[in-house]
Amino acid sequence: MAGADPLQQYRDACAELTAAGSAFAIQDPDEPYRRVFAGTPVTLNAFLETVRQEHSARDFLEFQRKRKTFQEIFDSADNLAAGLHLHHGITAGDVVGLAMRNLPEWFIAFFALIRLGAVVALLNSRGTPEEIAYTASRVGSRLVIADDPRDDELKGRTDCPVMGLAELKALATDRGSAAMPPMPAQTADDPAIILFTSGTTGRPKGATMTNRNMCLVAREGEFRREAALTIAAKQYGYPIDALRQASPLSSSLLVFPMFHISGLTILLMSLAGGGLMTLMERWNPAEALDRIEANHVNALSGPSLIFSDMLALPNAPEKLRSVRNFSIGGQSTPVGLARRLLETFPAAGMSGGWGQTEASGPVTAGSADVYGAFPGTVGMTAPLADIRVVDADGKLLPAGEIGELEVRAPQVMKGYWNDEAATCEAFRDGWLRTGDMGRFDEHGLVYIADRAKDMVISAGENIYCAEVERVLSMLDDQLEVAIFGVPDERLGERAIAAVVLRDDVSSKLQADSVRAHVRSQLAEYKVPSEVCFDLGPLPRNDLGKVDKVALARRYHDHWQNRA
Question: For residue 199, is pLDDT > 70?
């Protein structure tokens, strides 16, 4: 099938897989928020029970070069669930915060809480104690489970008890007399997880994800794998069953933190396929290359910085030879980096997609060949989703015109937890307003033009400009402040702070003191990489808002002059 149209190949595969009676037939197609693929579990507990039955003996996690099977992790989770129910009274519907880096105990706690029917609030473990406490309180957490040192830092700051690793490990090891409560009665629409995202106010909001939302993330992963196999079988003339049997189990390196939708997506897809996930205590490119080689990692996803860091090492091509798919997630793909990956690993593919936390991740899709044939696209609308492009008044725009992308899909959140006003603002006529600007081309492919939401994505982390600007505005000597992003090959973007000082004071403010001020209030990754005092007065549009595009252009001109 040399010279075949990759877009038509992908469309044909989707049509074949979703046809009536097929493995991924679309059920309730006329109900945009209820349609699902055939075979989609109703609840996360039902999904996890299938995982336990099918993959119990397989290795699930590797941490510090020690492996745990699915069964070992699930047994520990059962013990912990019984202990949480007996000693902390956790039951179905209770909100429990989870503030922990990527440790095996995170997964034990997560599975235990799902088993109890609790709503798991995935708190930003990289935030300051004040930030974590705020989000835990905002959603009414009955308990926060934390690692060290967050355990000590949070005690006395939250409205609820905090359980540390010592108690978690004790309960997970031996449940004693604690009995497992009955399996909770749940529906697909019941809330299961809260993921935090910020808007123009810079204050975190809790996106409420249902059982259906999360089960579809796993099932979508299975669909994409099957679509790739279907295309490959036709391209090379192999029986698809033979390809399935020859395909290795998924093996991934978990780089994204588990409070990210990207981390959660990797987990759910790995669970569905019975694959191995390798955890790292902290990012170290040399160690990452060693574990990728040792564990035959075949799918590697992360922010652009991890790929830049590894490619900078001389043994990267040899160590990464097992990887068959690269995915730069959490931000737009730097073109230069994508080119380097494809040139260095011509046998591998690159996957992509576009979405956001409120939509449970990507709502566009395509094959590796589609992304290669149409540079810059984020793919076509995924089979279960609807996407439209509208102007400021909600009027539908034709192909080629740029407007706001709006989404309807069963993966879309139920709303913001206990925030009816924000939920109403997020939807228009039943469509999720993504805040991203984009367009369709004549082939039905989606392209992202810009982000309407004012944020910088650095190293895969969302830095909401309004949040940092609020902290900068506390400085006594400032007249006006703004945060904006500039491209960076390693980080994707860098956050730059423009600080205009008052003329009527003799200020002693310096870049280091400004950065220290932000660091005292916010997480380290939100601290601007550079502070500029010579970009004022800040450019503004007709509405009086700072023109970030013009500001970035001004920064670029100043940088060139300094060089």
Answer: no
Has this prediction a pTM greater than 0.85?
Answer: yes
Pick the range with the lowest mean pLDDT from 11-20, 214-223, 383-392, 452-461.
452-461
Q: Whose structure tokens read 């060693």? A: 290
Residue 17, CA atoms < 13 Å, CB-side half-sphere: 25
**Tokens representing residue 202 in the block:** 């810079």
pLDDT (tens digit per residue) in 326-376: 987 755 566 667 778 888 998 888 777 888 999 998 899 988 888 878 877
The torsion angles phi and psi of 65, rounded to 5 degrees, stand at 65, 20
CA nearest neighbour of 99 among 161, 145, 148: 145
Phi/psi zone of residue 89: left (φ > 0), alpha (ψ -120 to 50 degrees), beta?
A: left
Query: What would the CATH number be for the domain defined by 44-210?
Result: 3.40.50.12780
CA distance 98 to 135: 11
What is the DSSP track for 437-465? EEEE-TTSEEEEEEESS-EEEETTEEEEH
Amino acid identity of residue 179, one-letter, is A
Closest residue by Cα to residue 552 from 467, 439, 465, 477: 465
Supply 532's token pair.
């500029």
Average pLDDT estimate for 400-406: 92
Tens-digit pLDDT profile for residues 479-514: 889 999 999 988 989 999 999 998 766 778 899 999
347-to-63, 162, 324, 341, 371 alpha-carbon distances in Å: 29, 48, 7, 10, 15
Strand pairing class (492-501; 478-488): antiparallel
Return the ∠ at Cα 495 (arms to 494 and 501), rounded to 5°. Answer: 140
Q: What are the angstrom distances between the C-alpha of 174 and each of 68, 107, 151, 286, 537?
A: 17, 17, 21, 37, 63
Under DSSP, the state recorded for 181 is: P
Residue whose C-alpha is closest to residue 101's, from 69, 137, 50, 148: 148
Which pLDDT band holds residue 301 (cuts at 50, 70, 90)? very high
First to last CA, the chain: 52
Evaluate whether 281 touches 463 at the Cβ level (below 8 Å). no
Domain boundaries, the chain: 44-210, 456-562
Domain spanning 456-562 has what CATH number? 3.30.300.30
Beta pairing class for 361-362 and 355-356: antiparallel
For residues 63 and 488, give the distance between their C-alpha atoms in angstroms, rounded to a whole number.
Answer: 31
Cα–Cα distance list, 388 to 271, 370, 394 (Å): 32, 21, 10
Find the helix or strand (DSSP H, E) in which 266 lies. helix 261-273
β-bridge mates for residue 137, sequence order: none
Nearest-angstrom CA–CA distance, 91 and 97: 14
Q: Phi first, then psi: what are they for 455, rounded to 5°?
A: -150, 160
How far apart (Å, rounded) are the C-alpha atoms in residues 175 and 155? Answer: 25
- 44-210 and 456-562 have identical folds: no
In the beta sheet, which residues pair with residue 450? 437
> What's the CA gap between 133 and 128, in Å, rounded?
9
Please state, in angstroms and rounded to a whole number, the distance separating the CA atoms of residues 555 and 94.
Answer: 48
